[in-house]
Amino acid sequence: MARRKILPMTMAKIEPPPPPPTVKLTVDAAALAHNWRTLDRMSGNAVAGAAVKADCYGLGVDTCIPVLSEAGARNFYVAHWSEVAAVARHVDPNSISVLHGVLNEQEAAYARAIGARPVINTPEQAQLWSQTGGGPCDVMVDTGINRLGISPDDISDPAIGALDIATLMSHLSSADEEADCNRQQRDLFARLAAQTKAQHYSLCNSAGIALGSAYHFDITRPGIALYGGVPRQEMDGQIRQVAYIQAIVMQIRQLEAGESVGYNGRFTAMGDHRVATVSLGYTDGFLRSRGTDGYLMHNDKMLKILGTVSMDMIIVDVSDAPDVQTGSWLDVPFNLPDAAQHSGLSQYELLTSIGPRLRR
Ligand SMILES: *Cc1c(COP(=O)(O)O)cnc(C)c1O
Questions:
Q1: Known active-site residue 77
Q2: Which ligand 1 atom is at minimum distance from the Cα of 79?
Q3: pTM value?
């Protein structure tokens, strides 16, 4: 909610409801549920959880979590403690794991108060968790990404041995590629799992699920593929697009040869053009890099972007789309694998850069 000055009661103004927005994100709930069920099925004997960090990768916790929960997800992953409360409004807090672990006593106290599990990443964190009261937690063991997690040698550390481990997990560095390290990480994780008492074991992100049953263990942790990302070809045709972005045409104008468009006149017309100014800009996540060779769609017409993307506007060529008028809705290409290839951004970046005006 936007911050505003709190007025004394007598001065409080009744705010009129705002008119409908001119740029919108639509989340296809049926596609989201389909993707979770598909990934759960592809996970074989394991159950799929759901990575819901970063506001469900930009698509909105309040929109997505009820759908994922209804579809059957029972394990939810966020990165920060600040993300837990919003998720816990929809699901049992002890189904939430916090990947960044507990860095200090304040975080440990908050974990207990709200009832979510930390993912312990160092022996020091294990000690902190035990000294502040213990209780169920998860443990991340780093099998080769060298990012977060205890090292394989730490598995025998008494501080780790003292924990009540719900899920022992690790994370693949290159599951979206054919890489020898996938097999090496899997084998190392299997060895460490055999040495560690935990209720469940978990290795795979979305891409890892496609590597086969040897990788699945008990719980998988898909994120990007839930939201329409296709990290590996095996998932092509099985994962449905979830996010749709549209923006309205605010003005139409005619350009004559020699006139240029937008900041710094980066596009100059060679002849006559009919152009539309659209309510979409880089603050909405449509970064300037997407303007170069980019386009919007109207029905099946491609509308080329002209000039530089502004903060709140872009200009598209509608010379060949006479039905585009002021008030027409244009579609932003958001099939993630295609849009990634076209823009040079990753499928993850395309989703998580969706701007604040589109979030609900
Ligand atoms: C983000 C994350 C996931 C989900 O990864 P995707 O590639 O989006 O499926 C799984 N596990 C961990 C530890 C993560 O940080």
A1: no
A2: 15
A3: 0.94
CA angle 51, 55, 60 (to 5 degrees): 110
281-339: pLDDT as tens digits:
999 999 998 888 899 999 999 999 999 999 999 999 999 999 999 999 999 999 999 99
Ligand 1 atom with the smallest distance to the CA of 348 is 8
- Binding site membership of 49 for ligand 1 (Cβ less than 6 Å): no
Q: How far apart are CA 46 and CA 215, in angstroms?
A: 10
71 lines ligand 1 (CB under 6 A): no
- Closest residue by CA, ligand 1 atom 6: 223
CA distance 279 to 273: 19
For residue 205, how far is its CA from the centre of ligand 1 (angstroms)? 5
Angle, to 10 degrees, between the axis of helix 61-71 and the axis of helix 29-42? 50
Query: Strands, E, within 113-190: which ranges?
Result: 117-120, 136-140, 164-169
Task: Give the span between the Cα atoms of 289 and 136, in whole angstroms.
Answer: 45
Which range has the worst mean pLDDT, 56-65, 170-179, 287-296?
A: 287-296
Q: Is the CB of 167 under 6 A from ligand 1?
A: no
CB 78 within 8 A of CB 98: yes
Ligand 1 atom closest to 53 (CA): 1
Q: Is there a contact between 132 and 111 (Cβ–Cβ < 8 Å)?
A: no
Q: How far apart (Å, rounded) are the C-alpha atoms in residues 36 and 195?
A: 31
Q: Can you tell me the mean pLDDT for 63-74?
A: 98
Kindly report the number of other CB atoms within 10 A of residue 326's CB atom.
11
Lowest mean pLDDT among 39-48, 201-210, 270-279, 350-359: 350-359
Q: Is the dihedral of CA 284, 290, 293, 295 positive or negative?
A: negative
Cβ neighbors of 264 (< 8 A, separation 6 or more) are: 308
